[in-house]
């Protein structure tokens, strides 16, 4: 599995966990602070994974991946 595929798989796993946590929150009438915090943490992880996937070599415009990082 390539790094890109692994990142996509990790993003999917986090997304599924976010959905499950939000469903549990909804069943609890949105009253569970711990679950709200868990969603916030999962969204941060999701954003970090997406950023990493979009820019696996950081902001280096000379990474030769074919994409313009400038």
Give your account of this protein's structure.
The protein is mainly alpha-helical and 70 residues long. The chain has helices at 3-27, 33-54. Helix 1 packs antiparallel against helix 2. The longest helix has 25 residues, at 3-27. It is elongated and about 40 Å long. It starts with a helix and ends in a 16-residue tail after the last helix. The relative contact order is 0.14.
How confident overall, as mean pLDDT? 84
Tell me the number of helical segments per DSSP (H or I, 4 or more residues long): 2
Characterize the largest beta sheet: strand count, sense, and whether it forms a barrel: none
The first-to-last residue Cα distance is 28 Å
The residue fraction in helices comes out at: 55-70%
Topology:
Blueprint: H1 3-27, H2 33-54
Helix pairs in contact: 1-2
List keywords for this structure.
elongated; 70 residues; 67% helix
Q: Quick summary of this structure?
A:
The chain has helices spanning 3-27, 33-54. It has two helices and no strands.
């Amino acid at each position: 599995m390539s790094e890109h595929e692994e990142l996509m798989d990790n993003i999917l796993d986090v997304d599924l966990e976010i959905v499950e946590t939000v469903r549990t929150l909804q069943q609890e009438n949105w009253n569970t602070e711990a679950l709200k915090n868990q969603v916030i943490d999962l969204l941060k992880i999701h954003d970090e994974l997406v950023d990493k996937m979009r820019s696996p070599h950081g902001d280096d415009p000379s990474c030769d991946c074919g994409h313009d990082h400038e």
